[in-house]
Automatic annotation (TrEMBL):
It catalyses: Hydrolysis of terminal, non-reducing beta-D-mannose residues in beta-D-mannosides. It is found in: Lysosome. This is beta-mannosidase. It comes from Anopheles culicifacies. It comes from the Eukaryota. Residues 1-26 form the signal peptide.
Length: 964
């Protein structure tokens, strides 16, 4: 009986979940996914007639160029891409291994064909549309002998009327793809004004003219990524059957109002209806409901959920009669206002400020004919759609100040310091960006590091619906670039027409998500034009005119027409409103007194806090490091010279590895003996430590300057990666955390204690609170001066500070160097460890736990004098290890013991544990000034097969490099 009850509850919950989270796919708006049994083939022709002996020593490129092979890859499913299919069929090795980024260049330069068999029957339906939600990129589409049309923009949805072809007969559906590399090259010819840059730097090993085509700009290579000129069907293909109207998108504009002393939310709903591809008269009824899921009971430890309705302030708002005509494209926008009392719903808040309350907005279209006459298939004249919405306000504030304009986000009338990162596509192959589990992992990693904002960068993708749903659930605000980056772009009529449709479709699809905070039309194109990045100065007037045509006259108004809920910025970085006053191209788009800035420095000492000034909002900054030694799949088989060559090949920064080496030289002993087997493991460790210190220092200066400089945002570059390569990321491709990402849990903590040596050589200590209650708190701050070689502090200093809610408090500007001099102590031998405690007037019965900890270095580590350079004995003890077979999550508790203080203890699993995935240490790269420290290790262990032991963990410290 109990099992039957649980099963019944499960079925009910499953049905509710389906209704609330996806487009209904019954006969009311029937959709058939064409995801199975596609065949992919290249178009070279010829026959396989080369003997095995003749093939030996020939590359795949040679074989294709010989026209000796036709690659036929059967039984493919969607979403799909040519590179993925060739990998799965073992025609090529993994694109992400060794030198396959250049070895597989031929793939992107070849034309390919996708085909499948299709049988459809239009009987009983007025419309049958074949809809491609994403085709990458240039394809001619055929059904049977009929040419349906062509595609040229991977971000655009294409629809074709196939009703008269749906007669029950089986026909071939075929897409003939043209190489995007060849197409881009063809479009570059005979242009009087070149669209620059024409090619990426040679170090990228990339392709040219990506700015002439509407494709993920990074797919032709970037400074952090490989060239992979993808082709394929990267989003669903569906047959859509209906007889009246289809609800394609729902958009919302949510605001606040006071009506007869009652506070209300207003929801202006935009219902985007479609009637095939031509104008049609519509007569019907729209029905609106707002619902939410709630736990109503608990039976035998099983939560019982119910779907409850939110009453509208005016019951008449629940329905709307529609009598209207769709336009020549078969589209009609119907707007309707709903009102809800504020006390009946909860607000949606960013991560760290409150809960993420989400509600389901249900809209139903029913044609008037359903009730007017008896129909054989009335359900075909009904369409339904459900989206999730959040009740919140987001304002981008640009208040005047004596020296410029502020620039910050206010959510629900609360100023928000934006803490976060920049998001690039989760894969260089667009079809893999739909990996739900990996996207979830990355977004959870951002949430757990206390981030409240991610910037979707303009050289990537308009992300999957799952990405935005997860951002809604986790409270991660999205700064969303449109997909233009680091380039000039053409403005011929066809290009602008395609752009307008791209922006219109994607803004409508994404717009309802409460996580979307702001749009920016491009990444770095204003500053590139003003600062002559691409040698545009001789033709500045012409390039300026193109800039205005594209962003001011096309992209900006198209976004505003489809989203009246948000601010649209013209670029990032930009001076915001000031750039508009300066006719869209500011004299200095990086002015720290306006808008947002991107700041990179590669040769000044990044560990030195005194060099950072910041701006109102720093939307890009960061530094490179190398992925962990064990992350390189070739590391075990490659010798030092081979691995060095591979790492240099994947280093796409035109400056090479020198900035990484230079920052290490400034502060740490740099390994120089390349003959040692530990050369690369040590160098990688030091690069990650240096990156973590640089981003830590810079971020903490920005948080500390919230009041002094008006800095209200810090989004470092970048969260994730697309392959194992030197880059600015905090998370390696595949999910391994670099030291930086482990440190971010403290760097971005809502209650934090910041300490650094400022430009006056004073130890500046600042208490930070991003929490809203209580109104203020009294913190006690302890500063301990330690010798590097001793567990016991040589001195203590105490301060108290009252810290306001959602603000900062200055603890001290302490002349620590003068203090040391009076005591005859040398700064190079000492550091400061800091601890913050809540001041509790009640009698304490135990040692209080610090609410925040930090450290401050008083000199460069390489300057530590000989007598303080001690070599600790480090021991690892596995205290406990548990693996859950339900989720394959292994959790291991470790004790790290040291004989003397250890500097920046770096823990890493050995390569023999390669079957373990997404392994993370709760602490890593830490200072250990106590004999024993506990660290948690978690991994995904499929099948719970591994038993982690102490010998599986390697340890490195800076000490061992200092004592050599």
């Amino acid at each position: 009986m109990l099992d039957a009850l649980k099963f019944f509850l499960f079925v009910i919950l499953l049905l509710v979940t389906i209704m609330l989270n996806q487009h209904v796919t019954s006969k009311r708006s029937a959709e058939l996914d064409l995801e199975l049994l596609w065949q992919i083939q290249d178009t070279k022709g010829g026959k396989y007639d080369t003997s095995a002996e003749e093939q030996i020593g020939q590359s795949a490129e040679d074989l294709v160029q010989n026209l000796s092979i036709v690659y036929v890859i059967p039984n493919q499913t969607l979403p799909s891409g040519v590179y993925t299919a060739l990998e799965q069929s073992m025609v090529i090795g993994s694109l992400l291994e060794e030198y396959n980024d250049v070895n597989t260049t031929w793939v992107g330069e070849t034309d390919w064909i996708y085909r499948t068999n299709l049988s459809c029957l239009a009987e009983g339906y007025r419309y049958v549309l074949l809809t491609f939600h994403g085709v990458d990129t240039f394809a001619s589409v055929y059904l049977g002998e009929r040419h349906l049309g062509t595609t040229e923009n991977m971000f655009v949805r294409y629809r074709y009327d196939v009703k008269d072809l749906c007669d029950g007969e089986t026909q071939e559906l075929k897409l003939e793809f043209r190489s995007p590399v060849v197409e881009a090259l063809a479009r570059a010819k005979d242009r009087s004004l070149p669209i620059v840059p024409t090619c990426p730097p040679n170090v990228y090993h990339g392709q040219c003219h990506v700015n002439l085509i509407r494709k993920m700009q990074a797919s032709f290579a970037w400074d952090w990524g490989l060239a992979a000129p993808s082709m394929g069907i990267w989003k669903p293909v569906r047959l859509e059957y209906y007889s009246s109207a289809l609800i394609r998108d729902l958009t919302v504009v949510i605001g606040e109002q006071m009506l007869e002393s009652v506070e209300q939310w207003t929801i202006m709903v935009g219902v985007h209806l479609e009637t095939g591809l031509s104008s049609t008269h519509l007569n019907g009824l729209l029905t609106f409901k707002i619902m939410y899921r709630s736990i109503v009971a608990k039976v035998l430890q099983v939560d019982i959920w119910a779907v409850l309705g939110v009453p509208l302030a005016d019951e008449s708002e629940q329905t709307l009669s529609v009598v209207n005509q769709t336009d020549i494209n078969g589209e009609l926008l119907v707007e309707h206002r709903l009102t809800v009392r504020k006390d009946l719903v909860d607000r949606w808040w960013p991560n760290g400020f409150g809960k993420q309350a989400l509600y389901s907005l249900y809209v139903r279209w029913e044609d008037e004919a359903v009730n007017g006459v008896k129909l054989p298939n009335p359900d075909t004249m009904i369409s339904e759609k459900v989206i999730r919405i959040g009740f919140r306000t987001v304002q981008l504030m640009q208040d005047p100040k004596p020296d410029g304009l502020m620039f910050y986000f206010k959510v629900n009338d609360v100023p928000i310091f934006a803490k976060g990162s920049n998001w690039i596509p989760s894969s260089i192959l667009p079809e893999r960006s739909y990996d739900v589990n990996y996207v979830k992992f990355l977004l959870y990693a951002a949430r757990d590091a206390h981030m409240n904002m991610l910037r979707v960068w303009g050289g990537g993708l308009y992300e999957s619906d799952h990405f935005y749903r997860m951002a809604d659930e986790l409270g991660i605000l999205i700064w969303h670039d449109l997909m233009f980056a680091c380039s000039m772009y053409p403005t011929d009529a066809d290009f602008l027409r395609s752009i307008k449709e791209e922006v219109r479709q994607n803004v409508r699809r994404i717009q309802h998500h409460p996580s979307i905070a702001v749009w920016a039309t491009n990444n770095e194109n204003e500053v590139a034009l003003r600062q002559n990045w691409y040698k545009t100065e001789p033709n500045y007037t012409a390039y300026y005119a193109q800039y205005v045509d594209l962003y001011v006259r096309t992209v900006l108004p198209t976004v505003e027409q489809n989203d009246r809920w948000r601010t649209v910025l013209l670029s990032s970085p930009s001076n915001g409103d000031q750039s508009i006053k300066e006719l869209y191209i500011a004299t200095n788009p990086q002015d720290p007194l306006y808008g947002d800035v991107h700041y990179y420095n590669y040769f000044l000492d990044g560990w030195n806090a005194a060099q950072y000034r910041g701006g109102r909002f720093v939307s890009e900054y960061g530094f490179q490091s190398f992925p962990a030694f064990t992350s390189w799949p070739e590391a075990r088989s490659y010798g030092h010279a081979e691995l060095s060559q591979l790492i240099n090949h994947r280093q796409h920064n035109p400056l090479g590895n020198e900035p990484i080496f230079e920052m290490i030289r400034y502060n740490l002993p740099l390994p120089t003996d390349t003959s040692q087997s530990d050369y690369w493991p040590e160098l990688i460790y030091l690069s990650q430590l240096s990156q973590a210190m640089i981003v830590k220092t810079e971020t903490e200066v920005y948080r500390a300057r919230r009041l002094e400089h008006g800095t209200m945002g810090a989004l470092y570059w970048q969260l994730n990666d697309v392959w194992i390569a030197p880059s600015w990321s905090s998370i390696e491709y595949g999910g391994t955390f670099k030291l930086l990402h482990v440190w971010l849990r403290d760097i971005f903590a809502p209650e934090h204690l910041i300490a650094f040596v400022n430009e006056r050589r004073l130890l500046e200590v600042v208490a930070v609170r991003d929490t809203l209650t209580p109104a203020d708190e009294l913190w006690d701050v302890e500063m301990r001066i330690h010798r590097y070689g001793s567990f016991r502090p040589v001195d203590r200093h105490y301060e108290s500070v009252r810290v306001p809610a959602n603000s900062i408090g200055l603890v001290a500007r302490w002349d620590v160097y003068g203090h040391l001099a009076k005591r005859g102590l040398h700064p190079a031998d000492h550091l400061v460890l800091l601890y913050a405690y809540r001041n509790d007037t009640k009698q304490r019965t135990h040692q209080p736990q610090p609410i925040a900890e930090n450290f401050a270095l008083l000199d460069k580590l390489k300057h530590i004098r000989t007598e303080q350079r001690v070599q600790p004995t480090v021991a690892i003890n596995v205290v406990s290890a548990v693996c859950s077979e339900r989720n394959n999550l292994t959790s291991v508790s470790l004790e790290v013991s040291v004989s003397v203080p250890a500097l920046f203890v770096y823990l890493q699993l050995t390569p023999e544990n390669s079957t373990l995935k997404q392994c993370q240490f709760s602490r890593n790269g830490f200072l250990q000034f106590q004999p024993i420290r506990t660290v948690q290790l978690t991994c995904i262990d499929p099948g719970c097969r591994n038993k982690i032991q102490a010998r599986d963990i390697t340890v490195r410290t800076v000490n061992e490099l200092l004592v050599r």
